Amino acid sequence: TMNFENIIARTHGKVGLITLNRPQALNALNDALIDEIGRALDGFEADEAIGCIVITGSEKAFAAGADIGAMKDFGFMDVYKGNYISANWDRVARCRKPMIAAVAGYALGGGCELAMMCDFIIAADTAQFGQPEVKLGILPGAGGTQRLPRAVGKAKAMELCLTGRTMDAAEAERAGLVARIVPADKLVEEALATAGKIASHSLPVVMMIKESVNRAYESALQEGLLFERRSFHSTFAMQDQKEGMAAFIEKRKPEFSNR
Ligand code: CAA
After folding, report:
1. Cβ–Cβ under 8 Å, residues 195 and 100
2. Are 60 and 111 in contact, with CB atoms under 8 Å apart?
3. Ligand 1 atom 4: the closest Cα is on which residue?
4. Known catalytic residue: 115?
């Protein structure tokens, strides 16, 4: 286990679990907290035994946004020179291992954006999503205006960003922001079980799947298909492809070696 002030990082078998832990501020995301997520991810990514990462918050809040107190007095030169909200947040988006956001309560502003940087969201029935920045006289600064329309379409993303209203878990699932809703008291258990399932597979194959699905957002269809096919071809150079197929034929469980 690593020592942090604003998060708790633990392992559960092959899963790395990051729990945001600033309850007094509903897990408002200050620089120190985001830096700590980055360092926890460095540790989990360097550890070959870890196959999937879960980020969660508390029952009341995944995260209520970037820390308003910390940024209220910033001037343009502070945020421009410091590349505010990009420098350390990019570490999260750059994670190559799969990441699940397990969201209960508020996921607002930067909290919603952090959840959307993960590969998918499992939501408690208590989850509330929104981009309320407009109410503060700013706009989303960590991808909200870009990732939300890709997830829920332009109409709903526009409405949410322009009004600042929140949507509940059921609406978020219908709209495609959320992969699955679970009862609040089962959230972390369900997320760990899902992550454990992912981590039981071949890690390099899982990483290639993540890269390939992400290509669907960043390229034209033919390019994405070519990227997928080359990745698919490359699995035939792996021991894990031989093992996975042999295990199927022999009607036994595969033993992947991440090779
Ligand atoms: N930043 C700093 N502190 C925050 C915070 C935030 N984003 N959200 C909540 N807190 C603090 C509150 O100030 C309060 O602290 P005190 O007890 O010291 O007063 C504590 O957390 C509890 O919050 P509330 O008393 O407000 O709790 P509530 O249950 O009445 O309301 C809430 C909950 C509706 C989520 C409300 O806290 C809220 O509206 N928070 C702000 C949401 C927001 O605007 N987020 C966007 C931030 S900007 C951003 O994220 C930019 C970006 O794109 C990266």
Report:
1. yes
2. no
3. 25
4. no
Q: Mean of the per-residue pLDDT values for the chain?
A: 97
Is 114's pLDDT higher than 70?
Answer: yes
Question: What are the structure tokens assigned to 84, written together?
Answer: 């505010």
Q: Is 133 a catalytic residue?
A: yes
Q: Hey, what long-range contacts does 151-154 have (CB within 8 A, 24 or more apart)? A: 151/116, 151/175, 151/176, 151/177, 152/176, 152/177
| Assembly ipTM | 0.98
| CB proximity list for 76: less than 8 A, separation 6 or greater | none
pLDDT in tens, 193-227: 999 999 999 999 999 999 999 999 889 999 999 99
Place of tokens 């910033």: 74
What average pLDDT does this structure show over 104-119? 98
pLDDT attached to residue 1: 63
Q: Which atom of ligand 1 is nearest to the CA of 68?
A: 1
Which residues, judged by CB distance below 6 Å to any ligand atom, belong to the binding site of ligand 1? 25-26, 28, 64-69, 85, 106, 108-110, 113, 132-133, 136, 140-142, 144
